[in-house]
């Protein structure tokens, strides 16, 4: 495939540059999808799972993206470049696919040429204590709308999460939990949410809103493999507050236990710790 010039840690359609066309529909309308991926020692963790979800999202949005192999190659080149530099052993790879450029108006162009953007970023400096002793969360006032067409996929329209995250500026609070317009608990602003009650693992149904995260799916699979009952259901804050254990997850933070939501406190329990250990094994096997 040739050699890619990598003066910067950004690739746009294979070129090292920082700007997209102003007519790009990702900028104009949020018409696209993205993936956020942990990089360890020059390798994108669970890259194939992320590419599978990206392709599924493109199919859902009818974006004719067919360059998965090229995307895989470019991601590998960026990650290797990062590892060869003076950077830390961890990083964050973000992949964005848009429908490409088009004229003014919502109508799609007759010929669609998707835009692909890959960028590498420093790994966030989260304290290890979040993983070990848990985090503090709050219930957000901003509600998630209902849309079965977009539910589950990681599309670029994230204003609900932006507005929810703007609700607090207190460093003692690490995450906000979001409800839908019917007051059902769905997820965190940047995470999926699980709770444990009577040795069963519960999480929200994502048929009308929310993002079906890579880590969420893996947690459900490994928990079922270890005999834990997995229940996807509709639940309220009252049910959440009565949980034995609560944790949140995403592909960058892994699993964070939740020790407090508003004024309700939780213990960092054995099931959460066991799932953390199992996920660590899977991630280590990816290296």
Structural commentary:
With 287 residues, the protein is α+β, with helices and mostly antiparallel strands. Helices cover 29% and strands 29% of the residues. It contains 8 helices and 14 strands. It has helices spanning 25-29, 47-60, 68-84, 128-133, 159-165, 214-225, 237-241, 270-286, and strands at 10-12, 32-40, 43-44, 90-98, 115-122, 135-144, 175-180, 185-188, 192-197, 200-204, 229-233, 245-250, 254-261, 264-265. The strands form 2 sheets. Strands 6, 7, 8, 9, 10, 11, 12, 13 and 14 form a 9-stranded mixed beta sheet that branches. It has a 5-stranded antiparallel beta sheet with strand order 1-5-4-2-3. Strand 9 (192-197) and strand 10 form a beta hairpin. The longest helix is centred in the first third of the chain and has 17 residues, at 68-84. The protein is globular. 34% of the residues are buried. Mean pLDDT is 93; it is low at 1-7.
The helicity comes to 25-40%
Order of helices and strands: EHEEHHEEHEHEEEEHEHEEEH
Q: Which ranges are low-confidence, i.e. pLDDT below 50, for 5 or more consecutive residues?
A: 1-7
Query: Number of helix segments?
Result: 8
Residue-averaged pLDDT, rounded? 93
Please report the total strand number as a whole number: 14
| Ends distance | 24 Å
Morphology call: globular
**Main beta sheet: strand number and arrangement?**
9 strands, mixed
Strand fraction equals: 25-35%
Structural class: alpha+beta
**Rg from alpha-carbon coordinates:** 19 Å
Q: How are the elements arranged and paired?
A:
Elements: E1 10-12, H1 25-29, E2 32-40, E3 43-44, H2 47-60, H3 68-84, E4 90-98, E5 115-122, H4 128-133, E6 135-144, H5 159-165, E7 175-180, E8 185-188, E9 192-197, E10 200-204, H6 214-225, E11 229-233, H7 237-241, E12 245-250, E13 254-261, E14 264-265, H8 270-286
Parallel strand pairs: 6-7, 6-13, 10-11
Antiparallel strand pairs: 1-5, 2-3, 2-4, 4-5, 7-8, 9-10, 9-12, 12-13, 13-14
């Amino acid at each position: 495939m040739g050699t890619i010039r990598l003066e910067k840690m950004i690739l746009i359609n294979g070129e090292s540059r920082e700007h997209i066309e102003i007519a790009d529909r990702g900028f104009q309308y949020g018409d696209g999808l993205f993936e956020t991926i942990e990089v360890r020692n020059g390798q994108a963790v669970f890259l194939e799972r992320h590419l599978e979800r990206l392709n599924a999202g493109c199919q859902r949005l009818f974006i004719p993206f067919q360059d998965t192999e090229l995307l895989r190659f470019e991601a590998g080149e960026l990650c290797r470049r990062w590892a060869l530099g003076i950077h830390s052993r961890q990083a964050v790879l973000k992949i964005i696919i848009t429908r490409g450029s088009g004229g003014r108006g919502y109508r799609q162009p007759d010929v669609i040429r998707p835009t692909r953007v890959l960028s590498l970023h420093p790994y966030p400096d989260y304290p290890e204590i979040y993983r070990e002793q848990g985090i503090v969360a709050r219930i957000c006032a901003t509600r998630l709308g209902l849309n079965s067409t977009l539910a589950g996929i990681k599309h670029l329209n994230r204003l609900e999460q932006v507005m929810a995250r703007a609700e607090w500026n207190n460093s003692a609070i690490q995450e906000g939990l979001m409800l839908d317009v019917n007051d059902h608990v769905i997820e965190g602003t940047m995470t999926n949410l699980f709770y444990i009650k009577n040795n069963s693992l519960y999480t929200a149904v994502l048929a009308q809103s929310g993002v079906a995260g890579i880590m969420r799916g893996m947690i459900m699979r490994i928990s079922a493999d270890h005999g834990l009952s997995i229940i996807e259901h509709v639940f309220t804050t009252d049910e959440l507050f009565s949980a034995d254990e609560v944790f949140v997850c995403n592909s960058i933070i892994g699993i964070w236990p939740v020790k407090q939501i508003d004024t309700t406190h939780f213990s960092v329990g054995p099931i959460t710790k066991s799932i953390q250990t199992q996920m660590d094994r899977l991630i280590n096997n990816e290296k």
